[in-house]
Specification:
Shape: globular
CATH topology of the largest domain: Nucleotidyltransferase, domain 5
CATH class of the largest domain: Alpha Beta
Pfam family, one: ROK
Number of strands: 13
CATH architecture of the largest domain: 2-Layer Sandwich
Structural class: alpha/beta
CATH superfamily of the largest domain: ATPase, nucleotide binding domain
Family: Belongs to the ROK (NagC/XylR) family.
Oligomer: single chain
Number of domains: 2
Distance between the termini: 14 Å
Largest sheet: 5 strands, mixed
Strand order of the largest sheet: 3-2-1-4-8
Strand content: 15-25%
Protein name: ROK family protein
């Protein structure tokens, strides 16, 4: 039995999976804010899953953690997880001290990529395109994560595509993330709705011209990310996940439409069959926690 924990900005998802990778137990709890609270959240998640499985921390074959920010998977150190109030935290070491067993720590998007790859039963190459507050991708090659030379592989949200575009949080201007992310929608479409993308799509469906323009930019930005992933890594599958994936088939249809339009004007892009490579992660599936459980077994 493996244990996986996805520590999110507001919620933490923990799962126990068996030797086949099938989900056996799952719990969700609120994420604490700040260094000590994040560690305590993880310890509590282990205890809750332990109660359901009847296993102590040392009884699991492995324990893996997925968390936002820059993660050194070798040391378990986490940096710049700003939404958690964490600047620098030796998470792996602190949890090993509290639990008495080793813990593997990975970036949450990379963990989700591994979870999606397993859940969908894929082979070969896949990119998991996470559309949340920002945009990032995790790349899996033959069942294993591809991190690159310094672990930055997949940070395609910070590829500038418009020199005159909006200023990105990374300090560059016109990055893909500035048009295709939750923060991009919130900036362009202010609303009291807790899910701005839902409000944007509702307004677009009602005929609001500006909403349609913004939704069009969103689809073009996501399509651009798909094109980058295929042209640079030639992944066989691009799986869209993250908060914006809850828009479902409406979003996927818009992205497919952009990719198909590009194919009509470019025989080269048409030959790559981009629309057929793109799909959504199954709704409600705990891919990040599942991936964290699998990461723990590396």
């Amino acid at each position: 039995m493996r244990l996986g924990i996805d520590i999110g900005g507001t919620k933490t998802d923990a799962v126990a999976v068996d030797e086949s990778g099938d989900l056996r137990q799952r719990v969700r709890l609120a994420t604490g804010f700040g260094h000590a609270a994040v560690v305590e959240t993880a310890v509590t998640a282990v205890a809750r899953i332990g109660e359901l499985t009847g296993l102590p921390a040392g009884g699991f074959d492995s324990i893996g953690i997925g968390i936002p920010g820059m993660v050194d998977s070798a040391s378990g150190d986490v940096a710049h997880a700003v939404n958690l109030g964490v600047e620098r935290l030796e998470l792996g070491g602190e949890l090993a001290g509290r639990l008495g067993v080793g813990v593997r720590v990975e970036n949450d998007v990379k963990a989700a990529a591994l979870g999606a790859y397993h859940l969908l039963g894929l082979g070969g190459t896949m990119a998991y395109l996470n559309l949340g507050t920002g945009m990032a991708a995790g790349i899996v090659v033959d069942g294993r994560l591809w991190r690159g030379a310094s672990g930055i592989a997949g940070e395609i949200g910070h590829l500038p595509v418009d020199p005159a575009g909006a200023l990105c949080a990374c300090g560059q201007r016109g990055c893909i993330e500035t048009t295709a992310s939750g923060s991009a929608i919130a900036r362009q479409w202010p609303t009291d709705d807790p899910f701005p993308a839902r409000a944007l799509y509702a307004a677009a469906a009602a005929g609001d011209t500006e909403a349609r323009v913004i939704a069009g930019r969103l689809a073009e930005g996501i399509a651009s990310a798909v094109r980058v992933l295929v042209l640079t890594v030639d992944v066989e599958h691009v799986v869209i996940g993250g908060g914006l994936s809850h828009l479902g088939e409406r979003l996927l249809s818009d992205v497919h439409e952009v990719l198909e339009e590009w194919g009509r004007t470019s025989p080269f892009l048409a030959s790559l069959a981009l629309p057929r490579r793109v799909r959504l992660v199954p709704e409600g599936s705990p891919v990040a926690a599942l991936g964290a459980a699998l990461v723990g077994g590396y």
